[in-house]
Amino acid sequence: MYPTYGYAARDAASPLAPFEFQRRDLRELDVRIDVQFCGVCHSDLHQARNEWRNTLYPVVPGHEIVGRVTEVGKGVTRFKVGELVGVGCLVDSCRTCASCAEGLEQYCENGFVGTYNGIDRISGELTYGGYSTQLVVDEAFVLRVPENLDPAGAAPLLCAGITTYSPLRTWGAGPGKKVGIVGLGGLGHMGVKLAHAMGAHVVLFTTSPSKIADGKRLGADEVVISKDPEQMQAHANSFDLIVNTVAAQHDLNPFIELLKRDGTLTLVGAPEHDHPSPQVFNLIFKRRRLAGSLIGGIAETQEMLDFCGQHGITSDIEMIKMQDINHAYERMLKSDVKYRFVIDIDSLRQ
Ligand code: NAP
Ligand code: ZN
Ligand code: ZN
């Protein structure tokens, strides 16, 4: 067993606080990783505060993890000590169902094992995430991080990156396509960068006028203030795809009206309370689609990391110490982060 230091929430109302625990002894195919950086996803906050009503306490959040391999199990073939690796939202799945067979472990029909708030399939123990000094993970769920990327800026790719990359690929973002990204937060700013790199015409929708210049710098061809009906109307019936990353309940109709015939609005934001049901006629008259998308499978996550390596794409980050996490959560709730907090895990080692 490996003594490990982290931060955990003990219940929905308490702030995160120091928490010591043990990582398991290495199984044959396990890799042990010294965590260097961990991104702060809005899902961490939803989960720490039990906003999805399924949190198992204590919860050690963190699923945007980058670090170096420190030890490998006897049967490990894919990784060596010293390699720069990443772990995202998944650490296991059944590996036999139809979804797993297609490399879509996030849709495992028997339930994937989350990096935190999951139940290990062998020991039955609760999984603990990347707000911690080290991690032990089966090599099948470990990703290779391109060495040319800044490791701190690469950490958010493991969730924010893949969660936007996957729907952009699924619905064919690329040259000649008009793609909207709603919300310029952690996911949204990755969505803008990735859609731009894929060659799409990118329109950012934001509620924050202060983010217009950043939106353009990050790769948006146009920026629309989504609260302004006139600006919205100017884009009616024109989008092939809109990816909605907003973390709070809101009216979807103004976005659905912007889709062309056969266009798709994909929800990736996962708010505590459901959005009101959109108008049916808005969908049926133009055969528009309302869809959802969950992170991405392991193979697609590696594809995304390699794509980012080739295009030099990382997240815009603000580095924090582990001890600052509760303040960072409050700022995230006010959309006051440009554009992802990343925890320097060395702050846990001092
Ligand atoms: P974030 O950094 O807090 O960004 C969310 C953005 O949404 C904000 O920056 C803001 O952008 C906009 N927003 C917030 N409150 C709003 C409101 N009341 N009305 C309109 N816009 C609002 O969060 P994140 O880490 O990107 O995560 C976004 C959501 O995706 C969370 O719910 C998270 O749990 C979920 N998520 C889902 C998946 C998946 O697999 N589907 C994976 C990861 C995360 P503007 O200031 O530009 O308006
Ligand atoms: Zn996440
Ligand atoms: Zn499965």
Structural overview:
This protein has 350 residues and is an alpha/beta fold. It folds into two domains: 2-159 and 296-348, Quinone Oxidoreductase, Chain A, domain 1 (Alpha-Beta Complex), CATH 3.90.180.10; 161-292, Rossmann fold (3-Layer(aba) Sandwich). The chain has helices at residues 42-48, 98-101, 151-154, 160-170, 186-197, 212-218, 229-233, 253-256, 280-284, 298-311, 325-333; strands at residues 2-8, 17-23, 30-39, 65-72, 84-87, 90-92, 113-114, 134-138, 143-144, 178-182, 201-206, 222-225, 239-244, 259-267, 289-292, 317-321, 340-344. Strands 3, 4, 5, 8, 9, 16 and 17 form a seven-stranded mixed sheet that branches. Helix 5 links the parallel strand 10 (178-182) and strand 11 (201-206). It is globular, with a radius of gyration of 20 Å. One zinc ion binds next to loops. Residues 41, 43, 63, 159 line the site of one zinc ion (ZN).
Q: Notable features of this structure?
A:
binds zinc ion, Rossmann fold, 11 helices, 26% strand, 2 domains, Quinone Oxidoreductase, Chain A, domain 1, alpha/beta, binds NADP nicotinamide-adenine-dinucleotide phosphate, 350 residues
Kindly identify the CATH topology of the largest domain.
Answer: Quinone Oxidoreductase, Chain A, domain 1
Global outline = globular
Which regions contain 5 or more consecutive residues with pLDDT less than 50?
A: none
Average pLDDT: 98
User: For the terminal residues, how far apart are their CA atoms?
Assistant: 21 Å
Largest sheet: 7 strands, mixed
| CATH architectural arrangement of the largest domain | Alpha-Beta Complex
Tally of structural domains = 2
The CATH class name of the largest domain reads: Alpha Beta
Structural class: alpha/beta
How much helicity do the residues have?
A: 10-25%
Give the amount of beta strand, in percent: 25-35%
Number of helices: 11
- Give the C-alpha Rg: 20 Å
How many beta strands in the DSSP annotation? 17
Question: Could you name the CATH homologous superfamily of the largest domain?
Answer: Medium-chain alcohol dehydrogenases, catalytic domain
Order of helices and strands: EEEHEEEHEEEHHEHEHEHEHEHEHEHE
Bound molecules: NADP nicotinamide-adenine-dinucleotide phosphate, zinc ion
